[in-house]
């Protein structure tokens, strides 16, 4: 009996030692994993910051390749009210907005070389260069074409990269030009298609001579 008793106690001690060793091993394992996690976090954090810096550098480099007209188009799209029902613009609204800016912006804040040239066409003033520049901005990842159901034409909006670029362009502009671009954006967003064309035709009648949206349609 005595031997059995001491044998049981010895077995319990061995079991406790083993449990203790397992506990220490588990504790060390948790500490090692936590240490590895901290090292990984410290190593990856500067990488994230560097990625942001690289993105900013990339945008500035892209802006240096753009013409003044392309920057104006970018600034216009960047001034659109995102909460407006017409936050994603169709080509006609873009065309008419840039037309008003090119025709009415003060000469001391927007040079002639940065203004678009227009000709009379089916829906009033038209510039092929605007379509071409939308293509350029799309190719560099600043503008994204959007297809809407039951519409045969594409709409356009800025990508995140385009929004950042537009902010930089607008910051370079005179405050008066920034304000005027914002007012023109509100004009094209808040008016119906018919009202928009009617107001432009009234102020610039020579651009209505080839319009399929004739006087009868406007009444």
Helix run count: 8
Q: Supply the CATH class of the largest domain.
A: Mainly Alpha
- The total domain count is 2
CATH topology heading of the largest domain: Arc Repressor Mutant, subunit A
| CATH arch. level architecture of the largest domain | Orthogonal Bundle
Q: What is the spatial order of strands in the main beta sheet?
A: 1-2
Which class best fits the helix and strand makeup? mainly alpha
- Catalogue the unreliable spans: 2-10, 41-54
Instruction: Please state the average pLDDT score.
Output: 83
Describe this structure in words.
The chain is 66% helix and 7% strand. With 219 residues, the protein is mostly helical. A hairpin with a 2-residue loop joins strand 1 and strand 2. Helix 3 packs antiparallel against helix 6. The longest helix has 64 residues. It is globular and about 85 Å long.
């Amino acid at each position: 009996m005595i031997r059995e008793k001491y044998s049981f106690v010895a077995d319990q001690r061995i079991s406790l030692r083993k449990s203790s060793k397992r506990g220490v091993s588990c504790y060390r394992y948790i500490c090692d994993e936590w240490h590895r996690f901290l090292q990984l976090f410290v190593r990856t954090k500067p990488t994230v910051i560097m990625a942001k810096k690289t993105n900013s550098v990339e945008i500035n480099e892209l802006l240096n390749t753009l013409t003044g007209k392309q920057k104006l188009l970018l600034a216009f799209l960047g001034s659109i009210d995102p909460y407006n029902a017409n936050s994603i613009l169709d080509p006609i609204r873009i065309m008419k907005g840039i037309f008003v800016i090119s025709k009415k912006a003060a000469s001391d804040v927007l040079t002639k070389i940065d203004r678009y040239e227009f000709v009379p066409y089916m829906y009033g003033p038209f510039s092929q260069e605007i379509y071409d520049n939308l293509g350029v901005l799309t190719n560099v990842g600043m503008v994204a074409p959007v297809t809407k159901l039951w519409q045969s034409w594409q709409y356009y909006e800025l990508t995140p990269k385009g929004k950042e670029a537009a902010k930089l362009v607008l910051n370079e502009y005179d405050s008066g030009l920034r304000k005027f671009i914002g007012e023109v954006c509100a004009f094209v967003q808040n008016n119906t298609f018919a009202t928009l064309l009617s107001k432009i035709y009234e102020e610039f009648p020579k651009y209505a001579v080839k319009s399929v949206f004739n006087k009868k349609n406007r009444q």
